[in-house]
Amino acid sequence: MNRSKLIGATALASVMAASAANAEMSISGYFAGTLGDSDGGGMTSSFSTNSIYVSYSDSMDNGMGIGLTMSVTSASITTDVNIDTGMGSIGLGTGQDSAVDSMDGSPACFSLNACGSALSGKTGGAGIYDDGDTKSGNSIKYSNSMGGISFAVTRGMKVQSTNGATGTAINTDDPNQIVKVNAGADVPTGYTRLSGSDATEGHAAVMSYAAKTSIMGATVAAGVSQIDYNGSTADVDPSFVTVGYSVAGLNLGYALYDSDNGMEETQMGVGTSVMGMNAGVTFATKDYTTDTDYMRVSLSKGMGAASFGLDYTETDVAGGDASDTDVWNFMYVVGF
Q1: Residue 113 DSSP one-character state
Q2: Which of 30, 58, 87 lies at the terminal end of a domain, its last residue?
């Protein structure tokens, strides 16, 4: 989950603290960048977040708290509204997470800026875990805490299927070659569509459920998303379970991500403090048609307004060395 999602989630805390006579407003910013080197292929530079956040909280005349958080990035502007009803909170807006996405972060990961859920990805598709967030769109969220259990339920927006339209495609190597592409047909290899469109498959409103609690000192979270497609794509109910536990200065983590289409990824990790730095190692195994093993070693150091980290990630794909990778990432995070 990225920084903007974290800020949006914590807006509720400001809402609950606000009084009818005392509104609060704050502004903050965050930048997270990475310098990477993959198997000696040359240095790359990228960023995962560059945002400005504006948060406002107040109370309505009926005593309910209300908070608004706006995240401004180079790609988009998203706004979240959270209403504290006294019997849980209702979240609306363009930046709402699915319930699963807000709780499926891995306690087995110790990277400064590369921790999320499954190391193998979470965009959905064949053999890939799906947290339901992208397909949910602008979710409606209800969250609450009872008896030491924090839980959330979200309902996404329905997406209609669309019919394809007959058009044309042009050969990328020879612009004189233009062919007709019928509705629903694939564009030939080596061609780019000029007109018309492909048919797209929609889906029902995505429902997502997640909960987190503490059991005998261990933090346990679990959740499931229900993704039902309109066409031939098989419906899936991807799920996760995570467990985190701290003992004797060690942070232990376990995570299981099930895509419900034949893939499971299991993670285990341990982290601690060494010479004023945070250090950790993560081991993960993806069980699928082609199995993949991961190992990540992470070091990070907080220095007030800025933090720096170093990751080494080794990926071992079954069946040979051709797809194996060794990646170094130097990360930096600056916030105000």
Answers
A1: S
A2: 87
The token pair at 35 is 């310098």
Q: What φ, ψ does residue 218 adopt, rounded to 5°?
A: -100, 135
Domain coverage including residue 57: 1-87
Residues 112 and 246 in one domain: yes
Is residue 32 assigned to a domain? yes
What does the alpha-carbon distance between residue 150 and residue 140 come to, in Å, rounded to a whole number? 17
Counted domains in the chain: 2
- Residue by residue, pLDDT tens for the chain (336 residues) are 444 444 444 443 444 444 445 689 999 998 999 999 987 677 888 888 889 999 999 999 999 999 999 999 888 899 999 999 999 999 999 989 999 999 999 999 999 998 999 999 988 888 999 999 999 989 999 999 999 999 999 999 999 998 888 889 999 888 889 999 887 777 888 898 888 887 888 999 999 999 999 999 999 999 999 999 998 899 999 999 999 999 999 999 999 999 999 999 999 999 999 999 999 999 999 999 999 999 999 999 999 999 999 999 999 999 888 889 999 999 999 998
Question: Is 137 contained in some domain?
Answer: no
Please check whether residue 129 lies inside any domain of the structure.
Answer: no
Where do the DSSP E strands lie in the chain?
24-38, 43-59, 65-73, 77-84, 89-93, 140-146, 149-155, 167-171, 178-181, 191-193, 207-215, 218-226, 239-247, 250-258, 264-274, 277-287, 292-303, 306-317, 325-335
Task: Give every CB contact of residue 210 below 8 A, 6+ residues apart in sequence.
Answer: 99, 100, 102, 103, 104, 151, 152, 221, 222, 223, 224
Tokens 């530079």, residue located: 45
Sheet containing strand 178-181, strands side by side: 178-181, 167-171, 191-193
- Indicate if 114 and 14 belong to the same structural domain: no
CATH code, 334:
2.40.160.10
- For residue 11, being part of any structural domain is answered with yes
Q: Which residue, of 87, 116, 132, is where some domain finishes?
A: 87
Report d(CA 101, CA 280) in Å as an integer: 23
Question: Dihedral of CA 113/43/292/297: which sign?
Answer: negative
